[in-house]
Amino acid sequence: MNQTMPNILIVDDEERFRITLGKRLKEAGFPVETVGGGQEALDHLTQHAVDVVILDIKMPGLNGIEVLAEIRRRHIGAEVLLLTGHAEVASAVDGMRLGAHDYLMKPYEFQGLQAKIHDAYKVKLNREERLRKAEARAQLDKLEKSIRF
């Protein structure tokens, strides 16, 4: 499996936080894009390949849980790290049920965030590898059936 740096999308309505985190992740070698809201995130995901989404929960318009639900429906390949400054057990439970990779509280230690990003990316790569193997098996089964008949 070829491990490269994951493409990251930061979704947060707090501009200063979003810009600062994006800058720090870029300095650490990650390709990063940032958007300020949920609908912008969904629009971005429609046009760009993203490996890991760092998604704020409390945002005007579409909140992070709503955005996560749409990501799971439309962009199953992207792993999502929920990030919030508000400790809400209910939103953490909802996020994990919807398939978030993890739920993190602001402020989160930067080294730990990088480790969570890499963990989420490994999950994505492993899932893609399993899908490739399943597709190859299905093609082989189809070929074997056509040879028999």
Automatic annotation (TrEMBL):
PROSITE patterns given in the database record: RESPONSE_REGULATORY (PS50110)
Organism domain of life: Bacteria
Gene3D superfamilies: 3.40.50.2300
Keywords: DNA-binding, Phosphoprotein, Transcription, Transcription regulation, Two-component regulatory system
GO cellular-component term (any): cytosol
Classification via PANTHER family: REGULATOR OF RPOS, TWO-COMPONENT RESPONSE REGULATOR ORR33
CDD domains: REC
Domain Response regulatory: start-end pairs: 7-121
GO MF term set: phosphorelay response regulator activity; transcription cis-regulatory region binding
Pfam families reported for this sequence: Response_reg
Protein name per the record: Response regulator receiver protein
Modified residues (4-aspartylphosphate): 56
GO BP annotations, alphabetical order: regulation of DNA-templated transcription
Keyword RNA-binding in record: no
